[in-house]
Write a structure and sequence with these properties.
heterodimer, A: about 220 residues, Rossmann fold, nine-stranded mixed β-sheet, two-stranded antiparallel ribbon, 11 strands, about 25% strand, B: about 80 residues, alpha+beta, Mth169, Chain: A, three-stranded antiparallel β-sheet, about 30% strand, elongated
């Protein structure tokens, strides 16, 4: 399985995401935001957390219009896998690969702590390491993680089994406690929590490692 | 030529920052403030002849996220 992890100016979880994928035996290439093509034969694109372009204008807005994001959109439209964490989720909503938007946290504060997430009724390849209803511990670290979408869009996400994770104790005001969602074809996952920061017991939780292992296992048999 | 783009959260989208400003005004004794909505103003310095259609395209593609925001363009 070959993965590309993109680095924007201001990305700060790109290395962590690359290491997380490597721990699950992916072969990872790092890609710079000014590149306009992805390396050949890429199965999965990782869009990392951080503060791309200093969060200017809106979080993720400028990254979503960078040269590499055109290639990422084309990759997703061909059915390729894309995984956005934190700022990566914001980028994915800005590109419209995922619906809705991430607004300022309802409490207006940056929040950095480990939270309980309930695994949704989502059977995409990203979720193969988990079972629905299971609660996992994963850190969040964001100022703009308040997931917002129209009632129709939220109903649709729930009806189609596209909610990947929900907060147990909603920290940021997200609609319907949503922490992560997948695209219609299940190949694009965006989530605010950081599974790549929960890879081994020394991190306080290794629950994130199962996402990487489950995904890459599912991709290998697909 | 110049254009001024006003970007506001759409009606119905909760604005936590505006709410915080409203509370702060209340704490200063301004009791008559029923609501505050916070947006942004973007000034564009444009080549002469730039059309309103082009400016709207800039808004749609980058300056506003039309999932949650609306915009108005003021020319001149």
């Amino acid at each position: 399985m070959r993965a590309a992890v993109i680095t924007f100016p201001g990305s700060n979880c790109d290395r962590d995401l690359a290491v997380g994928l490597e721990m699950a035996d992916a072969e990872v290439t790092r890609v710079w935001h000014k590149d306009s093509t992805l390396p050949d034969g890429i199965d999965l694109v990782g869009i990392p957390g951080g503060f791309s372009y200093g969060d200017y204008l809106r979080c993720g807005a400028i990254a979503a219009n960078s040269p590499i994001c055109k290639a990422v959109k084309a990759h997703a439209e061909k059915g390729g896998y894309v995984f956005g964490v934190c700022n990566g989720f914001q980028v994915l909503t800005e590109t419209r690969l995922l619906p809705g938007a991430l607004m300022r946290n309802a409490g207006l504060k940056y929040i950095c702590r480990t939270v309980g997430l309930e695994v949704g009724e989502n059977r995409s390849d990203f979720m193969q390491g988990y079972s629905a209803g299971q609660v996992i511990q994963v850190p969040i670290a964001h100022h703009d993680g308040n997931y917002t979408a129209t009632t129709e869009e939220l109903d649709r996400l729930e009806g189609e089994g596209r909610v990947a994770f929900r907060y147990n104790d909603n920290p940021n005001g997200s609609d319907r406690n949503i922490a992560g969602i997948t695209s219609e074809n299940g190949r694009v996952l965006g989530m605010m929590p950081h599974p790549e920061r929960a890879m081994e017991d020394a991190h306080g939780s290794s629950d994130g490692a199962r996402l990487f292992a489950g995904l890459i296992g599912a991709m290998a048999t697909a | 030529m110049k254009a001024r783009v006003h970007v506001m959260l759409k009606n119905g989208v909760l604005d936590p920052q505006g709410e915080a400003v409203r509370h702060a005004l209340g704490a200063l004794g301004f009791d008559d403030v029923n609501g505050v909505r916070q947006g942004k103003v973007i000034e564009l310095d444009l080549a002469d002849g730039t059309t309103e259609v082009q400016i709207n395209e800039m808004c749609e593609k980058l300056l506003a996220n039309t999932v949650i925001e609306s915009y108005t363009v003021e020319l001149g």
